[in-house]
Amino acid sequence: MSRLLTFFKHVDGWSMYPIVALGMFLAFFAMVTLWALYTRNADMDRYAKLPLDADDQTPTL
Amino acid sequence: MKQELEHFSYDNRIVSYFLKATILWSLIALLVGLTIALQLVWPALNANTSWLTFGRLRALHTNGAIFAFAGNAIFMGVYYSMQRLLKTRMASDLLSKIHFWGWQLIIVLAVITLPLGITSTKEYAELEWPIDILITLVWVVFGVNMIWTILKRRERHLYVAIWFYIATFVTVAVLHIFNNLELPVSWTKSYSVYAGVQDALVQWWYGHNAVAFFLTTPFLGLMYYFLPKAAERPVYSYRLSIVHFWALIFIYIWAGPHHLLYSALPDWAQNLGTVFSIMLIAPSWGGMINGLLTLRGAWDRVRDSAVLKFFVVGVSAYGMATFEGPMLSTKWLNSIAHFTDWIPAHVHVGTLGWNGFMAFGVVYWLLPKLWKNGRYSEKLANWHFWLGTTGLLFWVIPMYVAGFTQSLMWKDMANGMLVNPNFLDTVTKIIPMYLTRALGGTLYITGIVVMIVNVWKTVVKGDLIADEEASAPALEAHKKHSGEHWHRWIERKPVQMVIWSTVVILIGGVIEIVPTLMVDSNVPTISTVKPYTPLELEGRDLYMREACNACHTQMIRPFDNEVLRYDPTHKQYSLPGEYVYEHPHLWGSKRTGPDLWRVGAKGYSNSWHYNHMWQPTSMSPGSIMPRYVWMFTTHDAEGNLLNDGSLDTSLTQTKMETLAKLGVPYTPEEIADAHRARRAQAQAIAADLNSDPRITVNANEEIVALIAYLQRLGTDVHKASEEELNALK
After folding, report:
1. Closest residue to B85, CB basis, from A10, A21, A54
2. B81 vs A50: CB contact, 8 Å cut-off?
3. For the segment B60-78, what is each residue's pLDDT rounded down to a tens digit?
4. Is the peptide bond before A18 cis (omega within 30 degrees of 0)?
């Protein structure tokens, strides 16, 4: 543990890490967008109507 | 094959509890807000009473508005919508009740402790450590009940509102725990484990994300449920809602450092906050557009429906605030707006407009659903809407004007000199705007009173449907079918959803905070910066008790006008190394009064401070600072004790021991010698004060300790050599 702490205290270039995280975000964002775009319309319509369907007894399985 | 229906009931009673609590606390929190707004015009309204004074009540107002008003509104909407979206009753009525009463207990404890000056001073996290633990426990009860309910649901798909609720639960838990890590001194006193720059970063990582995950994500969840219900049509784009959710929770967590631009925070962290704040416009506006377009083809109904009116203005206010926020995160606009009244204006577009109006819309939508045969009045609801909208405008517009006025006056320079060297001139100029703001608050509160009448008529005359009958088929085990999309697995598995939401929000927090906490080079130390003496330490705790940081900053930014105004002799802006022993930091976020970080080096005498704290207008005619008479020992004409202002020194050594554990270099000898050293310093200050024939003071009065602290501020860095300071820049 102490070796790990020593490493963190003296590591250089931390300011580059956010760039890596930005890349991670863009990849993640692209993945979610693709998922949203490629999901079937019928599924999306059914999900969107869930609040309206909630009062009747129609399940969406 | 037709599936057999299971019969069950929804728990409306818990929703009704939270609804009533929402209304009660909205009135109380906003009345406290109005009280302190009026005190900024007439400071004598504190009646020279400690627990009625601005600094203490300001924390009560913010905590009341966020956690009591908005908090209860969130739970009201969550408990109603979640049961219906999952087609099941809440998993445990007992946990629901523990959550409700536990939350109200926390609020009552805040109402008691904050006016007593029991505070950690960290904005929106002022409650002391025993209450922090209680918050954690109650929050866990809420989370367990929510996840347990999700697990026993009768609806396979988790609607997007539920995703927002899950993200709220996990993120608030993480934020609350890490920001409130503190070492207790007593049951009512603790010190943050973080110091200075690091404490500021963690605090604003928390503070910003309290806005994000307490005032935004749960309300977006409510929007995705109640807006389609009120408009009687599905959300405009479910696809957009998915991208909205993941992008929002990922980006929001990074944006905290935009509260610390031009501060002593490392530049890379400031820039990170700016970049992610600007990116935040996209998901925020995606959500706003999704909400408003849900009303496509139904705009005519807005004319007749008070609920839809509240939702439309609420979502529009969200759009305005989430455009303004990223703009304020750019350095050029931040340099104008930060520390001015522009920021409260921005905040109140969000709280009064977005949170308040969404909460009111949900209340009005629920009233006739929960209570049958009541006398719900659409007309009164419309009256509330127009009073609220007018009040909102009267609140924020004068504050935008005040913010610009302050900033222009602070920065105004000619021939290298300040045009307005007396800070007070920039205060007296905007008092008419403060008065108009108070009028806006009065109108907004009048609207709430109208709502209370409406709720009263509905609740007292109506019958609560405590258990609403419902039926749905049981959830069958899922059979994977060909062509099914890979994302379906996460929607079906709420525990994984919780884990992934946590991972997403932790990425930002870890990358931002760990290096600032760990890497030595982020906070270069200054050899002449030393820990406070025992008396100064007690004085600092009094400064915290009175929440002086609610009006005075301790952060001189690297602008010509700031170094000239706040450090005229050395013209030195604040450096990270000056704050290494500040547990917690007291940078503040608003300058109603001037910055105090170098006040000790500005040449004010002890007697000036003494007279100023006794009667601020005696030293600064026109000042709106309240009197702090309870810090003085006073007697009436007959010599009877009126107020005992003696300093409590019973914990001085424990405080030093606690700080020593946190890395402040107090030696055992210094701790053992604390009382002698304190008395010696206090006697020297008292002797100096008593040399003024108009002053009679005892060395053990609180005011002496406060003066010792104020006179120390900013003096250490001036002892540093030119070479050392140049190396740090």
Report:
1. A54
2. no
3. 999 999 999 999 999 999 9
4. no
